[in-house]
Design goal:
By secondary structure, this protein is α/β, with parallel strands linked by helices. 44% of the residues lie in helices and 18% in strands. α5 (109-124) links the parallel β3 (95-101) and β4 (127-133). Bound molecules: adenosine-5'-diphosphate and ligand VHF. One of its GO terms (molecular function) is glutamate 5-kinase activity.
Length: 253
Amino acid sequence: MAKKRILLKIGSNTLTKETNHISRGKIEDLGVQIAALNEEYEFIIVSSGAIAAAKQFVKLDNQDKDVFVKQALASIGQPHLMRIYNENFKDLGLNTSQCLLSYSDFEKEQTKKNIVNTINVLVKNNYIPIINENDTVATDEIRFGDNDKLAALTAVLLNVDILIIATNTNGIYTKESIHNENPETIKLVSDLKSLEKEIGESKSSHGTGGMQSKIEAAAIAKAASIETWIVNGLNDNFILKALKDEIPFTKIV
Ligand SMILES: Nc1ncnc2c1ncn2[C@@H]1O[C@H](COP(=O)(O)OP(=O)(O)O)[C@@H](O)[C@H]1O
Ligand SMILES: N[C@@H](CCC(=O)OP(=O)(O)O)C(=O)O
């Protein structure tokens, strides 16, 4: 039977477990789950974390709020990020590869074909593509996006079965439940307009796009009949548990 495809988007917040360091434990947690699901699912990862990785090792002589400083940090941190993935995944028998993409790559037929061809060869040969924005040439995601839109565009291009966006909440909560300080997850939804009404302005410590960018990503996926799952990536085994419906998360169909 053909394997199902999962596109997993993981942000800096989850990867650092809300600290200032990339968490080897979280990367190992991802690897353990991918290895456990290897017979049934193939994985493509969209991972942020390049800037967070750089900040672990260097301090540049500039204000890091400037976009071009963030770009430089991403350039320094990306190879470290990949090294950490590599080291942890190798021990679990998983191979990794790096793909750097930007929105404009999704606008031209030839570059789209190139992406699909490359990634299909990688996946077929049991290499897990780890995608990030090419931050030297593009600034969309470091400015606004959380890599959520890049993940959705990639999910559609690669015709995945499920887009999983890992974040730091148990999916999307109702506005009222947040207000009452007793967050309640909206478990299943297909009307994105009604969902938008539940979204607040707040963002996590490393976050840029908030829940809004995840809903926009879900809209892109939905238009291609791909389900989006918004899952709490801070939990150990969050993919396995979501697949078994053992944790609360939001499924957008
Ligand atoms: N209705 C909602 N339910 C859950 N979280 C929400 C909601 N509205 C806004 N948020 C905020 O969105 C944040 C997640 O987005 P973001 O900070 O960009 O995280 P990430 O780095 O995982 O992409 C949550 O931590 C929360 O502060
Ligand atoms: N591409 C950059 C940042 C992208 C971004 O802002 O994403 P996120 O960490 O999900 O809020 C990086 O890898 O650090």
